[in-house]
Target: 2-C-methyl-D-erythritol 2,4-cyclodiphosphate synthase
Amino acid sequence: MRIGHGYDVHRLVPERKLILGGVEIPFELGLLGHSDADVLTHALMDALLGAAGLGDIGGAFPDSDPAYEGISSLLLLERVMGMLAGKGLRVGSADMTILCQRPKLAGYLPQIRALLAQYLGIPGDRVNVKATTEEGLGFTGRGEGVAAHAVVLLEEDGG
Ligand SMILES: Nc1ccn([C@@H]2O[C@H](COP(=O)(O)O)[C@@H](O)[C@H]2O)c(=O)n1
Ligand SMILES: C[C@@]1(CO)OP(=O)(O)OP(=O)(O)OC[C@H]1O
Model:
């Protein structure tokens, strides 16, 4: 069994979409990035790559490469899952936390969880997605950005 942790931050700005775990959330601001800036999926991919000993998303999908401009992070997650399969690894479970002052995310978490479980190839009860504010403190508290943490367990095929 292998464990991995991922963390990512993206800035909230006008005229961008707010996409978290592949789900578009209606809000007046969205996340800035080279890709779709889906901070939750980025943290998840970093946890998966970390557990597999495969580095990080910046190494796998450089933000200097125009091929990734505006790309859906779910497509990148699909590629990460292919990299894990190539090493004989599958996901056991995943737990994630989104740090976000606004908007309220509770109503979207079940949809995000179901979608990510599908991409991870595991039942929904092996995936958990939580949201918390940071009580108005720091950059997430001021609404300047959204951060996400992810922890995953990987299992070896046949293990
Ligand atoms: N953007 C957010 C942040 C939090 N929630 C939900 O509210 C609960 C309480 O949050 P605290 O930061 O006060 O602990 C939290 O457990 C989430 O369920 C949310 O929906 N959206
Ligand atoms: C996802 C990638 C893809 O180019 O771009 P960004 O959206 O800028 O996101 P970041 O979290 O900075 O990770 C780097 C890149 O891998």
About this structure: The helical segments are 39-52, 57-60, 73-86, 109-120, 138-141. The longest strand covers residues 2-14. The chain is about 30% helix and 30% strand. The two ends are 8 Å apart (CA to CA).
